Amino acid sequence: MSSLLPKTYKDFSSKQYWNTFFAKRGTKAFEWYGEYAELCGLLHKYIRPKDKLLVAGCGNSTISADLYRVGYKDMVNADISEIVIRQMQEKYSLSCPEMKWVQMDLTASSFEDGEFSCVLDKGTLDALMTDASPEVVEMINKYFSELGRILRVGGRYVCVTLLQEHIVAHVLDWFPKNGWMVRVCRCEDAEKSQSDSGSFSFPVFVVICTKFKQMPNFKPVVEIQFHGEEVQRVETTEQVIQNVAELQQYALLRHNLQSQRVAGENMTVELCDSINGGCRYTLHIVDSPKKSNSLKFAVFIVPHGREQEWMFGTASGREKLAESAGASRLIVVHLARDQTYDNLKAIQDELSAKVMELAPSKLPAHTKVPFLSVGEDLGHREERIRGHSQFSGDYVVEDVHPPGASKLRRLIFLANQNVIQSEAKLLVVKDKKKKKEKLTIDYSYLSCEHHLAMVGGLGLIPSGDILLVGLGGGPLATYIHKYIPKVTLTAVELDPSMVEVAKEWFGFVPDSRLKVEVGDGLDYIAKKAEEGTKFSVVLFDVDSKDSSVGMSCPPRDFVERSFLEKVASCLTDRGLLILNLVCRDEKLKAAVISDIKALFPSVLCQQIPEEVNCVLFCSLSSQQANLKSDFEKGLKEINKSLKQNQRTKEDVINTSEVCQNLSIL
After folding, report:
1. Which pLDDT score, from 0 to 100, does residue 197 have?
2. Tens of pLDDT along 621-637?
3. Helix/strand/coil for 492
4. Where does the Methyltransferase domain lie (predicted)?
5. DSSP per residue over 606-629, as a string?
6. Is 274 in contact with 250 (CB distance < 8 Å)?
7. Does residue 603 share a domain with residue 461?
8. Looking at beta carbons, which pairs linking 545-548 to residues 24 or more positions away fall under 8 Å?
9. Over the stretch 574-590, which tens digit does the pLDDT of each residue have?
10. Looking at 353, 373, 393, which one is the last position of a domain?
11. Where in the sequence is the domain holding 59, given as residue range(s)?
12. What is residue 585's three-state secondary structure?
């Protein structure tokens, strides 16, 4: 198993933030680069004792003397400061007699062409390249060009660096462009030394740039080695820049988590496979507001198929989970859908080291951190199909079996994996002929509370022609068709791939009472309004792809006043518009409701408990005073019909709960 590469969503990436951060390093800056003991593993790999070595910008570092003592005798130390050179000569004249010291500006040195086979730079590049201003870049280019002149072909520039954003970008631009091979290695020993001393552990890198003979049409070679595994060749330098930034951001996140509580900040970290880059775990870090919890630190593994539940899939739910667990800090772990896991013990073994990096400060050494879950069963997830939609991007249909629950089939858009687009319950039935079990759809199951609310609204007009805009996987359309037999339903779906998914995977079967039209719902309604077509009920169950608007259902165009006028003209005299409204922008929500009320004399609102959703029932009837009582009567009739058709004695819709959350607008 390859090691896990952290990736944080916390935004530490602004240039202004990092410029301020590095400006505050002060005199402790060079402690971050590590000493010989931490760097020797990488230095010995890329610098040979027989190399003629130049230590560029040696300063008062002990690294030269340390290398000398283990056999690196052919060494020249250069620094622009005459005082430093004199001090170092006096300090090491007896213990390192063969080592040379010269005062020199390395952007314009007097060394011979090809004089050295290796140049060691420990923090010098970082000190010189303070920013990406034209003057500084010009100086650094002179420095790099001079390195290219004094190094022989096959020679190596070994640079110990913190790789600020402007530095890594310039290194990965200049050297490949000039025909050099570049390898970026992470020095975890230097970081561990910082961590053990109690100081801020910042990522330290050793960049090895190897000079090649100039060749036409040279394809740049860039490699990385970040976690001790095999060296990986990368296709683009942008990938390296991104990986370096993620490691730096993760280091700062760890520092913040160890130095302070982060209650209410909803921090998230992805742990990715360092070989293929795929996300393996998503870690949600939750600090409880209470400081008196008996459990200081714990980890909760969410079983397959339950990650979208309120308790595990929302910030407020996870806070409640931490409170229930009695944990001051709880790491809530989501498992990735395209990964395999053996059991809880295997996950615990894989995560133990990483979660300790996120532990609160002052946690006693060798603390045994409890791993919690919903029983011992991880659940099961099976991908049935993966495809691409021109409107919604990549999607997946998967069967999940959460522990202790029914099997479910879900449609997920990978651009928004926290939202279940469509869900159906699966029944296991025996095929007597083939003597094996098969899965079928349980058509009586509706997973979404707002879908049941919309069905309840049909009690006002339980017969006639219905138009549904937004099919998805088709559970709402199929449910209405199967259990409200006096209606004829036409569904309009923009995305043809979703129609195929509904038919193939969710049991959607069109017939004389259930039709589907592929097209834009806006255009379809405009056309029907022009033709004078009438519907008893129009339902909007369509989401918005525009995340910049504070309304995710329906799209803004569907509630523009000019379009609502077309909807009203498509309805019968006592016709009904039912729409699922998900709007976090209160001003926008008020404006939408105002436009609706201007066109529909009677409007009821059913708030969905513990959700942002509310379902609006907009009637052209002017009898607003009777609307609520009519709704309640119709709800009882719908319940009778559903109970009869589903052959159940229990109410399908909780009438008292619906009426409690129902209000006239």
Report:
1. 53
2. 877 667 788 888 888 88
3. strand
4. 55-140
5. EEPTTSS-EEEEEES-S-HHHHHH
6. no
7. yes
8. 545/391, 545/392
9. 899 999 999 888 899 99
10. 373
11. 4-245
12. coil
Give how many domains the chain has, as a whole number. 3
**Which whole-number Å values give the CA distances from 180 to 145, 153, 309, in the listed order?**
12, 10, 51
Q: What is the pLDDT of residues 215-269, one digit of tens each?
A: 888 888 999 998 766 888 998 999 899 889 888 888 887 777 776 666 556 788 8
Q: Are the C-beta atoms of 4 and 333 separated by less than 8 Å? A: no
Single out the residue of 290, 285, 280 nearest to residue 300, CA to CA.
285
Q: Which residue has the tokens 């310039």?
A: 170
Helical axes 561-569 vs 521-531, angle rounded to 10° = 50
* pLDDT score of 6: 57
* CA angle (389, 395, 401) in 5-degree steps: 155
- Read off the amino acid at residue 25: R
Backbone angles phi and psi of 322, in degrees to 5: -60, -40
Q: Which residue has the higher pLDDT, 211 or 287?
A: 211
Cβ-contact 529, 562 below 8 angstroms: no
DSSP E strand stretches across 519-636: 535-540, 551-553, 571-583, 602-607, 614-619
Residue 473: both structure tokens together: 């996987």
Tokens at 399, concatenated: 């069967």
Runs of H (alpha helix) within 372-474:
449-457
Within a domain: 384: no
Pairing of strands 614-619, 181-186: unpaired
Say yes or no: 230 and 309 in one domain: no
Residue 608, token pair as written in the block: 């969905």
Which residue, 261, 254, 245, is CA-closest to 357? 254
> What kind and span of H or E run contains 512?
none
Supply angle C-alpha 233, 235, 237, rounded to 5: 95
Residues 630, 520, single domain; the answer is: yes
Angle between helices 475-483 and 624-646 (to 10 degrees): 80
Q: Does 119 share its domain with 268?
A: no
| CA dist list (Å): 610 to 263, 459, 634, 635 | 21, 24, 25, 22
pLDDT > 70: percent of the chain: 90
Structure tokens at 431: 């095929």
Listed residues 245, 279, 310: the one ending a domain? 245
Are 452 and 480 in contact, with CB atoms under 8 Å apart? no
Please report, for residues 146, 183, 549, the alpha-carbon distance to residue 149 in angstroms, rounded to integers and kept in the order given: 5, 20, 56
- Residue 9's CB: how many other CB atoms inside 10 A? 12
**How far apart are the C-alpha atoms of 240 and 319, rounded to whole Å?**
35
Helix 586-599 vs helix 561-569: crossing angle, to nearest 10: 40
Q: What's the distance, CA 551 to chain centroid?
A: 21
Kindly report the pTM of this predicted structure.
0.67
